[in-house]
Specification:
Blueprint (H helix, E strand, L loop, with lengths): L1 H11 L8 E2 L15 E3 L11 E4 L3 H4 L13 E6 L4 E2 L4 H11 L3 E5 L21 H14 L4 E11 L1 H12 L5 E5 L5 H12 L18 H4 L7 E6 L7 H10 L6 E6 L10 H4 L1 H15 L2
Parallel strand pairs: 1-5, 4-6, 4-7, 7-8, 8-9, 9-10
Antiparallel strand pairs: 2-3, 3-6
Helix pairs in contact: 4-5
């Protein structure tokens, strides 16, 4: 029950709004939840500092609240979690980090520029995303892959909604990434935007995409050449990124590419109806098994 209440609070407070809503205030810190972690120094090529927390495998269970043992340099597989389009890494990410760490993964969370403690960056709330987010992601992946305690051959990226398609693009672009986990993944903007217009009662001018965003690398356009293990989760009642989008992407993957789809009953896109929230334990168990079986 305590886990459910915490998850509910974390999820509700990070409702996705299908447009950029940076939150620079951390609602809690890892220390307040007794989570062992350290901050990483990450800077993008264009000079932005990206706030990043590293959570070591196992220690969340073995030594809760203790400092990281710097002599413990065992190389573990690592999951990098990115944010969606609102909130910051002090929300649902902390519960995911705690659970995946207990299952033998290092976990890394970070904030986009303009979010949390990352370098300020002016954002127009009518935009769905910013191209610069891909640069932020790249900087984090490269920094994490260089850590001595990280197995650079076994890195996965995970994200939801906006963060889901940014994660798949990043996995496609970077050889350091070996697997991808996505919740509520859109095929492309042409499919996604009309649905958001209906659901959120917004006009096309309120749902903008940067002119320099690589739309040709949205999930459905790269799927046929995407050979990395892919785990997708979606709510059966999701009307922004319906189940058919996830199915279409997985069906387009090259033959032999490991993949799994988890459709959660009575779940929708996010908030109270977030499929990861409703089926949290199953999600952690299935993604843990999937990654351990399929990371190279």
């Amino acid at each position: 029950m305590k886990r459910y209440v915490l998850l509910l609070v974390l999820s509700i407070l990070s409702l996705e709004v299908s447009s950029i809503r940076p939150d620079r205030t951390y609602i809690r810190t890892p220390e307040q939840l007794g989570l062992v972690h350290k901050e990483l120094e990450v800077e993008t090529l264009d000079g932005y500092r990206i706030a990043t927390w590293f959570f070591p495998a196992g220690q969340q269970q073995e030594h809760p609240g203790s400092p990281i043992d710097e002599d413990r340099k065992v190389r573990y597989p690592t999951i990098i979690i990115c944010n969606g389009d609102a909130g910051n890494m002090s929300y649902f990410q902390l519960q995911l980090a705690q659970s995946w760490c207990r299952n033998g993964f290092h976990v890394v969370t970070f904030d986009w520029r303009g979010f949390g403690a990352s370098t300020p960056f002016e954002m127009n709330p009518d935009y769905l995303c910013y191209t610069e987010m891909l640069e932020d992601y790249r900087a984090v992946v490269c920094a994490v892959a260089a850590l001595p305690e990280v197995d650079p051959r076994r890195i996965a990226v995970a994200g939801w909604s906006t963060g889901a398609y940014l994660s798949m693009i990043t996995a496609y672009d970077l050889p350091q990434v070996g697997a991808f986990i996505g919740r509520s993944l859109a095929t492309d903007f042409e499919d996604f935007i009309p649905l958001v217009m209906q659901v959120r009662n917004k006009t096309r001018k309120q749902l903008l995409v940067p002119e320099d965003f690589p739309t040709e690398r949205m999930p459905i356009h790269i799927a046929a050449d995407f050979r990395k293990p892919t785990f997708l989760i979606v709510g059966e009642n999701d009307i922004r990124t319906p189940v058919w989008m996830s199915r279409k992407i997985l069906e387009t993957l090259p033959e032999g590419t490991p993949h799994e789809l988890m459709v959660v009953k009575k779940a929708a896109h996010g908030g109270y109806e977030d499929p990861m929230l409703i089926a949290f334990d199953e999600f952690i168990n299935r993604t843990t098994r999937f990654l351990k079986n399929n990371l190279p």
